[in-house]
Design goal:
By secondary structure, the protein is mainly β. Helix content is about 10%, strand content about 40%. It is globular and about 85 Å long. One of its GO terms (biological process) is amine metabolic process.
Amino acid sequence: MNLPVVDAAAHHPGHLAHHPASSLSSLTAEEFVRVRDIVSATPAFTSTTRFVYVGLEEPHKGEVLAHREGTGPRPERRARVMLLDMATGASTDNIVSLDASAVVSSVAIDPAEGQVPILLEEFDAIPEICAADPRWVQALAERDTVPEKVMVVPLSAGSYGFEEEVGHRIVRVLAFRQDYPEDHPWAHPLEGLCAYVDTIERKITRLIDTGAVPIPAESGNFDDPTVQGKPLDTLKPIEITQPEGPSFTVEGESVSWANWTFDLGFDAREGLILRNLSFTDDGEQRPVIYRASIAEMVVPYGDPSPIRFWQNYFDLGEYLFGRFTNPLELGCDCLGEIKYFDITLADETGNPFTINNGICMHEEDFGTLWKHTDIFTGASEVRRSRRLVISFFTTVGNYDYGFYWYLYLDGTIECEAKLTGVLFTSGYTEDGAPYNSLVAPGLGAPYHQHLFSARLDMMVDGTANAVDEIEAVRLPFSDTNDRGEAFTKSVTRLATEQTAAREAKGSTARSWHIVNTEKTNRLGQPTGYMLYPGDQPTLMADPGSSLAARAAFATKHLWVTQYDPAERYASGDFVHQSTGGGGLPAFTAQDRSVDGEDIVLWHTFGPTHFPRPEDWPVMPVDYAKFTLKPYGFFTKNPAMNVPPSKAAGHCTNPESGTTHGCGG
C-alpha cells in the first residue's frame, strides 16, 4: 500500500498554502482536511484505508531556532500520517507536505517487527467476531451467561512468538458480565477465559479456557447512591476567586505567566506538549526546555496465569491515549479562574474532530514561598507561593490519567501524573493469590505498575548541555573527619549515551544536574537545572522477558541521548506487537557524546501498585511526579521580588472561630 509521491494540488484547486505564525503550531481543522484530501487522492488509497494517526511532523530544532533568530527560512509545514488497510492489514508511514500539497515519502511497515496502533474500528468489531464463534458462546454458557450479557474488552497482544500471529493484527480479549445497562461490568470478570482475535481476518485464532470460576456478584457501581453511602454533610464550600482575573496572558498557543513564557501543543499520541519554556531573568529571556511531553507509558501486570500472562499495555504507542482526552468542566476537573483550550485531532477517516475544553490552565495558591523571622533584627517577611497548572485528563479503558505540569515562581518545574479510575479486575482464586489483591468478595486485582517516560528536550541557557550525576557520599573516619560526622557529594559527568542510562538511588539522594557547558553564573559555576527523580522500582519483569525487550525504557530511570528529531518515542515508532529493541536501546546503541551537546533526557517514573480494598470500586487518586529545580541557574533567589500578599486582614468567623489571612 505504498503511496506514490504525487502533487495533489490539481485535485484541490481551492486550497491555499497555510503559513501559521509558528512552524510548531498545532495542526488546524483545515489542515487535517487538506492532509485527508492529499492522501486520499493517491492511487493506492482505497475505501478500506484508515487514518491511524495524523500529527505534526516537527522540523529539526536547528531549523526552528535559525528561523526564530532570523538566520534561516521558515521550516516546511509537514504532517505525519500512518495508514492501515482494513482489508489486507498493510500499513504505511507517510510524510505529507502541506506547503507542496503532496505526499513526499511513504514507507511500508513490516508487520512482523511492529505495527501501527490499534484502531477503534478494530475494537468495535470484536463483540461480533466473538459472538459468531461457537466455542466462545459455549464457554459463556458454561458460565451461565450469553454474549448479550457480556462486555468484551479487547486488549493489545504483545509479542510471544505464536506462529499464527506473526505478521497478523492480533488483540486478546477478556470478558465481563453486565447484569443490566447501568451495571459496571468490571465487578463481574469471567475468570479463566480469553480469546485471541485476528482483527483483519475477523476470527478467533485461539480460545484459552482454563475452566469456569464463580463470577463475583457484588455491585461495583460507584455512581449508585446505595454504594456511595450516606453523603458527608459536614463539608463547607471552598470558594476560589481572583477578582482581578488571572495573572497569565494567552495569545493563540503562546502563554506568559509571571516570568515564564511557553507554547502549548497537543498530539493524539503524546497528549499535552509544552514548547519553548523560558524564564525571564533580569530582562533576559532564558530558555530551559525546548520541548516536554510524555513519550510512552507501559502498564505491566504481574499475573502469570494462562489467560493473563500477556497483560501489558503501552497506552501511547498501542492506543494513542491523547484521542481519549476528556472534555473538562468548570468546578469539577479544574477549579478557579480557568482558561480552557480546545483540541483538534483527526478521526480514522481523516476528518477533524474537536474535544472541547481538552486542556485546562489555571493558577493555584501553594502556601509559603519564602519566610523568615530574624532573631537579631526582628525583621519578619513572608511571601506566598503560587503555581501555574496546565493539565489534561484521558481515559484509557478502566483507568483515568491526569497529567499536570506545574510552573512555580522560583523557577521550579514539576510534572505530576494523577491515577484514578477502576481497577482491572479478575476472579480471585488460590492459584492467583500470590499475584493479586482481594478487593471484594471473590474479586481480585492483579499487581501491576504504571511506568511513564517523560521526554525532556533540554535547552538550559542554550543547546550546549551535559548531565552530572550528583550523589551524597558518607565519609569514613580520617585525619580530616576525626569525629566521623562529615559528608560530601560526588559529581560524575555522564559523557556518552551508554554510560548515561542510570537508575535512581534514594539511599544516596541521586539526582541529575543538567548544566550548560559554555555559560556560568557570577560565581563561576555552570548554569543548570537539577532533575530530582521519584524513587520507585523500574520494570519488575525479568530482563530476559519479551516485555523487558519491548519496554526497555522502563528498565532505567534516566536515559540521555543526543538530539535527533526522528527519536521521538521511548519504545520506538511501532509498538503494537513489536518484538522489542526499538526506541531507547536503539538510540543509545550509537553511544554518541552527550557532553556539551544538544541533548534529550528521558525520565521513567511511576508507581508499583499492590491494590487495596480501599481502591474499589473506584480508586482515590494516586500520584507520581518528578521535579526540575534551578541549580546555579540564577544568581540568587529569583522570587525575591514577589510582593507581599494583599490579605483582607485576619478576620474571625464568629460561628467557627477560624481566621483567614496569608499564613500557611
